[in-house]
Amino acid sequence: MQLHFSPSMRSITISSNNGFIDLMKIKVAACHISYRTLFHTILILAFLLPFVFILTALVTLEGVNKCSSLDCLGRRLGPRLLGRTDNSARLVKDFYNILNEVKTGEIPSSLNLPDSFDQMVSDMKDNKYDAKTFALMLKGMMEKFEKEIRESKFAELMNKHFAASSVPKGINCLSLRLTDEYSSNAHARKQLPPPELLPMLSDNSYHHFILSTDNILAASVVVASTVQSSQKPENIVFHVITDKKTYAAMHSWFALNPPSPAIVEVKGIHQFDWLTRENVPVLEAVESQNGVRDYYHGNHLLGANLSDTNPRKFASKLQARSPKYISLLNHIRIYIPELFPNLDKVVFLDDDVVVQRDLSPLWEIEMNGKVNGAVETCRGEDDWVMSKHLKNYFNFSHPLIAGHLDPDECAWAYGMNVFDLRTWRTSNIRETYHSWLKENLRSNMTMWKLGTLPPALIAFRGHVYPIDSSWHMLGLGYQNKTNVEDVKMAAVIHYNGQSKPWLEIGFEHLRPFWNKYVNYSNDFVRNCNIMDS
Ligand SMILES: *[C@@H]1O[C@H](CO)[C@@H](O)[C@H](O)[C@H]1NC(C)=O
Ligand SMILES: *[C@@H]1O[C@H](CO)[C@@H](O)[C@H](O)[C@H]1NC(C)=O
Ligand SMILES: *[C@@H]1O[C@H](CO)[C@@H](O)[C@H](O)[C@H]1NC(C)=O
Ligand SMILES: *[C@@H]1O[C@H](CO)[C@@H](O)[C@H](O)[C@H]1NC(C)=O
Ligand SMILES: *[C@@H]1O[C@H](CO)[C@@H](O)[C@H](O)[C@H]1NC(C)=O
Fold first, then answer.
1. C-alpha closest to that of 210 among 329, 46, 387
2. Any ligand 5 atom below 6 A from CB of 228
3. Where is the secretion signal located (predicted)?
């Protein structure tokens, strides 16, 4: 009987010459079974095959196989390893106790772990270990390997995070060239929409869409897909909101590529008189607080305690801290009623969606006095994206949260929302939003992670009208398990998550749904080397 560890510790082979257990190979792939599992496997083996295990496992570890008989092994290792040799049952019990003790105990920090199993084996040859030290070593090494694997997993997530938060060269180039065009080409500067269409911007017989982004390519896809999927594109008015630095480029794009017959207006946040310090005090505070800035730039993550988290939680933490989630462009949706004082009902779209169906029925929905028509995210096949309750967003150990919210209440999604602005103006949604943001700032952001959804989940409580989930399919930027048939059927698909279709880390099989609406024959797109991959 032999127990054989491969050098990388990825497999254990148990073989027996007498045909007892013929050949049993346990493959331990690093990503499937943790070394902790392996440790437990060995404990169980130790229990089942006690005496033989102890004696043979130690010396048949790679490279140490000088003794060919059990007797020899027993003589060499027995007394020293086990302390006494009176009878085997006793030995087994002792050793099992030792293993158990070690299993629950801490590894003493003074214990010098060998760097490799080879090292361990050669130390062992020199008879350095007693049984307890050996067991501790075994456990320590397994934990060390497990930690290394976890850390490399987290490093991978970090890299992915930075890949996800940086602006790809092509999109940056597009922005620069279009800004240039704005100053050199009168067509790029022409009034948008032309003066004769200005009244449509506040005409409630049109279908008004609002989009807030600094990503021109993404904006072009949202607008193009909405217009091309519409049965009455002449009925569409788009209000594209962008920041000051992107304004010229965004304006150039839509001036040079009007999605006619739809109407587009481009607004910079600097052009809204209403957006003053007095009206948005909290955002000022959020954006200027240095601590917060460090926080969302991820500096603290490098020193984070990785043993109390898991890759999934870590990924969502990273996501919540991306600069995007704290920018004014992202918070702006809470000010729509004030920014568009003449509009009654609008559809708000995120920049990472693609519209695949005519959305005009959304204006027909009778919302029964509710403000926000949204898809609920606590029911659905996708057990990650569609299993969101308030407990997923809030820290229920915080007394204010525990006192005000129900952890099992269903959450809903931003990305495609029908807003009844008339009803909204009669509510105190914005005040609630502000007061909770302030409260969270005061509690050092312990009530929820940074982001715009949690305060909105509170502010819109009682004002949400659930719409059918086929209107808005989420999760295309999270995982590649997304069901492609469902994607084809959905009215709006949403690449929420890190893997945006314009990034290299986007999922290849989901990209065509987005690429379809990029105009690759456009000179600016071509000259910036943005290509259909
Ligand atoms: C990390 O978290 C774990 C579990 O919460 C805790 O036992 C450990 O002491 C922490 N380590 C550090 C360095 O804070
Ligand atoms: C917030 O953090 C600061 C320093 O990081 C600390 O001095 C202060 O007591 C904290 N406040 C609360 C409410 O925890
Ligand atoms: C949750 O709230 C409690 C109580 O305020 C606080 O001690 C804890 O640190 C918070 N947790 C997180 C992750 O912020
Ligand atoms: C999903 O990812 C896995 C590995 O990450 C890959 O093997 C699989 O082919 C991918 N599935 C699709 C549909 O792309
Ligand atoms: C793509 O861009 C080109 C050049 O700007 C333009 O002529 C063409 O109409 C655009 N195609 C679509 C589908 O918008």
1. 329
2. no
3. none
- Cβ-based burial of 349 (10 A; exposed 0-12, middle 13-18, buried ≥19): buried
Task: State the Cα–Cα distance between residues 334 and 282, nearest whole angstrom.
Answer: 12
Mutate to test the pocket of ligand 3, among 314, 316, 398 (most ligand atoms within 8 A of CB): 398
Q: Whose CA is nearest to atom 6 of ligand 4?
A: 480
305 Cβ inside 6 Å of ligand 3: no
In a domain, 285, yes or no: yes
Per-residue pLDDT band for 37 (boundaries 50, 70, 90) equals: low
Instruction: Please identify, by atom number, the ligand 2 atom nearest to the C-alpha of residue 446.
Output: 14
In this structure, the residue with its CA closest to atom 4 of ligand 4 is 480
Same domain, 244 and 127: no
Helix (H) or strand (E) holding 419: strand 416-420
Q: Are 58 and 97 in the same domain?
A: no
The rounded distance, in Å, linking the Cα atoms of 487 and 484 is: 5
Domain shared by 235 and 348, yes or no: yes
User: The pTM is what?
Assistant: 0.70
Contact indicator for 410, 376 with CB cutoff of 8 Å: yes
User: How high is the pLDDT of residue 107?
Assistant: 75
Average pLDDT (245-257) is 95
Query: Which ligand has the minimum distance to the alpha carbon of residue 106?
Result: 1
Is pLDDT of 454 > 50?
A: yes
Identify the CATH number of the domain in which residue 337 sits.
3.90.550.10
Ligand 5, atom nearest to 519 Cα: 1
Residues 361 and 318 in one domain: yes
Residue where a domain stops, chosen among 11, 45, 77:
77
Q: Which atom of ligand 3 is nearest to the CA of 395?
A: 1
Number of domains in the chain: 3
Answer with the one of 77, 107, 140 that is the final residue of a domain: 77
Q: Name the phi and psi angles at 12, rounded to 5.
A: -125, 130
Q: For residue 373, what pLDDT is reported? A: 97
The three-state secondary structure class of 192 is: coil
Distance (Å) from CA 309 to ligand 1 centroid: 10
- Indicate if the pLDDT at residue 190 is higher than 90: yes
Distance from residue 18's CA to the centre of ligand 2 (Å) = 68
Q: Are residues 404 and 511 in the same domain?
A: yes
Closest atom of ligand 4 to CA, residue 484 = 13
Ligand 2 pocket mutation, candidates 289, 292, 438, 444, criterion most atoms within 8 A of CB: 444
How many Å apart are CA 200 and CA 86, to the nearest integer?
Answer: 97
> Are 393 and 319 within 8 A, CB to CB?
no
Q: Give CA–CA dist 265/263, Å, rounded.
A: 7
* Residue 69 sits in the same domain as residue 192: no
Q: Residues lining ligand 1, judged by CB closer than 6 Å? A: 305, 307-308
pLDDT at 309: 64
Q: Which residue has the CA at smallest separation from atom 2 of ligand 4? A: 480
Q: Based on the domain organization, do 386 and 251 belong to the same domain?
A: yes
Shared domain check, 343 and 437: yes
**pLDDT at 69 > cutoff 60:** no
